[in-house]
Design brief:
The chain is mainly alpha-helical. The chain contains 22 helices and ten strands. The protein is about 60% helix and about 5% strand. The strands form five sheets. Strands 1-2 form a two-stranded antiparallel sheet. It is elongated and about 105 Å long. GO terms for molecular function: transmembrane transporter activity.
Length: about 700
């Protein structure tokens, strides 16, 4: 009985006098380009990605993700401001009454419209007098910016009587420092604890009343701690920690993956045990780091304050709450990992036999160890471009004056008088298309990653298939040429199929993500638990999730194997691969599953090691102070983990695809030769025969008296 592929896979008779071409032409036959419309779609998508990214590069400025805007619309810390603000990167609201009024429920002014300037550090009240913070020197104030900084931003003694009277009315150009403040993510957050000495001096000078309500603290805190502000800081952390991402997300996983492949090649018997033990150690280590940064153990918790602060003042933030959640999740993962390790201990010997088959393939097709370096560098270039575009897209927008309707006045040094016309502040205004552009950019990253991984898998599958079906005939050509031949077949015939496969996987994953978000929101709605409509929608979304999961299992890497061997399109290849596996599921299922588990743990070991080293690098002084201070190690660690996993998946794909291709070829080999696989490696036959013998022995013992 022939399998679903008939004689497509296998050795082909050649005309008299002809010899098979070098490097695995034994699996070549009449091929043609497949799924070309999807290759054109992928190319069009890349053009759209470039256009989308160019919009970000044109409109965005990553400084906006970290620093605020002053009342003139300048970005604090920018050298292109008026005046030059390259060293003035801390935003300070100089009028405390405006800050208080913006926190009222019946507020007539919003915090972005309150007057703010950029300073080097947050000012503090005087211990025995009254300090002032004055506006940028211009007009009649003949001071340079450097002199203004040297005077601690105070030129009150140079003011004319009219300017002094205006300042006492909190209209500037100088404003009293009544409340202490701390630098919280480059914005000065007031502490609602007015200095009695400074307040007394202010009242003696005839200054207007200053509100001392707690709102002056909460208003700025809520603005700094808003969801959009936290998201911007998380994205900015990616840009600040780029050396960490290069080392821990690129170079380290490359080194570890190559070491793992070499150890599989020369020390395969001990690798499953080493992988399981190392996985548990790394999970525990990463969990402990989350505990430390969450402040649950140790004395080095995350702080939202930049620089020194009063140790008796405690300021929280969403970043700290997110670390608490991450620590809890890692605890759950740690428990699951430990229980899973116990469950698979008895099956590790089976995985060792399967890995020996892959080690044999790697030993004979030695170019497989080197090949992933090529897609690795392609992905590295793509990710550098993508992350740069991400920073600019998230910061894209226009700095425009707010549309406000308030009555306020402030002294204009250029005009030399109090001006009541320009009270509105500036904000970064985003168009409705920015959100769509960001989602498109994120989807593009996932699709491109899946495409390059699929191409790598297809090349490896074609090389291993050549090894399987040509054993003993062209072994002298196998070590170097099969990979090149497989790569040529991919580039010439199958790029469209890989584009379709990666697109399907990407769409399915995004649909699953959207459905999960819908279910999560439904659980937060009270009536969703009680109403019939809520229950119906929740059940329907859960059913859809089940269908999506089934689709993901069907559209798997086995389709790429059939594409590499037969040149079929993606859909047909997926159907053929599924048929082969289902016909032999009882024979190969357990062997394949245990091998996949060990490989998954290996990939997680590499990615967890990347996360652990990212924690260590981010814990240095460079990223805990000054301009490179990150808001939280959470996002850089997660990005390092994700990049490490992608790199590990790229290199571990050599072993993974070797096992899958050998097993799939074995299935067809057995079906073509009436159950006897003629070309199967002896190690694979021993593994399957031992497994069959153990199952038969258990059945016999179960039927005994």
């Amino acid at each position: 009985m022939r399998g679903p592929l008939g004689a497509i896979i296998g050795r082909y008779p050649f005309p008299a006098g002809d010899e098979p071409g070098p490097g695995g032409d034994v699996i070549s036959h009449d091929r043609k380009c497949r799924d070309l419309p999807f290759l054109a779609l992928f190319a069009t998508f890349w053009v759209a990605m470039l256009i989308n990214s160019s919009f970000g590069f044109n409109q965005g400025n990553p400084l906006r993700l970290t620093y605020g805007l002053d009342y003139k619309g300048n970005i604090c810390g920018s050298r292109h401001g008026d005046p030059d603000l390259r060293e003035l990167d801390v935003r300070y609201w100089i009028n405390p009454n405006q800050v208080y009024q913006s926190g009222l429920k019946s507020n007539q002014i919003n915090l972005p419209d309150a007057k703010a300037i950029c300073l080097m550090e947050c000012p503090l009240p005087a211990e025995d007098g009254l300090n002032f913070v004055c506006d940028y020197p211009e007009g009649d104030i003949r001071l340079s910016v450097d002199d203004w900084i040297d005077r601690d931003y105070d030129y009150f003694e140079y003011l004319t009587p009219a300017m002094r009277n205006s300042s006492l009315q909190l209209q500037g150009p100088c404003y009293p420092v009544i409340f202490p403040s701390v630098n919280v993510y480059w914005s000065c957050q007031f502490i609602a604890r007015a200095s009695n000495v400074s307040l007394k001096h202010w009242q003696q000078m005839g200054g207007v009343s200053i509100d001392e309500n707690m709102l002056i603290d909460k208003t700025i805190h809520n603005a700094i701690n808003s969801k959009s502000a936290v998201l911007k800081r998380y994205v900015a952390d990616i840009g600040k920690s780029w050396p960490v991402l290069i080392v821990c997300g690129g170079l380290l996983p490359l080194f570890l993956s190559v070491i793992w492949l070499l150890m599989i090649r020369y020390f395969v018997a001990g690798m499953p045990w080493i992988t399981v033990v190392l996985f548990n150690v790394l999970v525990i280590s990463v969990t402990m780091f989350f505990y430390i940064k969450a402040g649950w153990i140790g004395s080095d918790p995350l702080t939202v304050v930049i620089g020194e602060s009063d140790p008796y003042v405690s300021i929280g933030g969403r970043e700290i709450n997110h670390l608490h959640v991450a620590a809890v999740l890692m605890t759950v993962i740690m428990i699951i990992a430990f229980l899973t390790s116990i469950a698979i201990v008895r099956r590790i010997l089976i995985s060792t036999s399967v890995l020996k088959v892959a080690a044999k393939v790697i030993g004979e097709v030695q170019a497989l160890i080197i090949f992933p370096i090529m897609p690795y560098f392609i992905l590295a270039i793509f990710y550098m471009f993508w992350f740069s575009a991400t920073l600019h897209l998230f910061s894209s927008g226009q700095v425009l004056r707010n549309d406000c309707n308030i009555n306020c006045c402030s002294y204009d040094l250029k005009l030399g008088k109090v001006n009541c016309d320009n009270c509105c502040g500036y904000s970064v205004h985003y168009t409705q298309y920015v959100g769509i552009a960001i989602l498109f950019h994120l989807f593009g990253c996932y699709w491109a990653t899946q495409f390059f991984l699929g191409c790598s898998s297809t090349v490896i599958a074609g090389s291993v298939a050549s090894y399987y079906w040509a054993r003993g005939e062209i072994s002298h050509d196998i070590p170097f040429r099969t990979v090149i031949s497989s790569l040529k077949r991919l580039l010439r015939y199958s790029l469209g199929s890989v584009a379709l496969g990666s697109l399907i996987v990407s769409i399915v994953e995004w649909v699953r993500f959207i459905l999960k978000s819908v279910r999560r929101k439904l659980k937060l709605v009270d009536y969703a638990r009680d109403s019939c409509f809520g229950k119906t929608v929740s059940s329907s979304s859960q059913c859809c999730l089940g269908c999506v999961d089934w689709t993901i299992r069907s559209v798997n890497r086995n389709a790429y194997i059939i594409i590499a061997i037969t040149g079929k399109g993606f859909c047909k290849a997926s159907e053929l691969a599924t048929g082969l596996i289902m016909n032999n599921i009882l024979r190969i299922g357990k062997v394949n599953v245990i091998g996949d588990v060990i490989l998954l743990l290996g990939k997680l070991c590499v990615s967890l090691m990347s996360a652990l080293f990212a924690f260590l690098m981010l814990d240095t002084h460079r990223y805990k102070s000054a301009h490179n201070k990150i808001s939280s190690p959470l996002v850089p660690v997660l990005v390092s983990w994700a990049l490490g996993y992608v790199v590990a998946k790229l290199f571990f794909g050599v072993v993974e695809m070797s096992i899958e291709t050998i097993i799939l070829s074995f299935c067809q080999d057995a079906e073509e030769h009436e159950g006897n696989a003629r070309y199967a490696p002896p190690l694979l036959m021993e593994t399957l025969d031992d497994d069959d013998h153990q199952q038969l022995q258990r059945l016999t013992q179960g039927q005994g008296p």
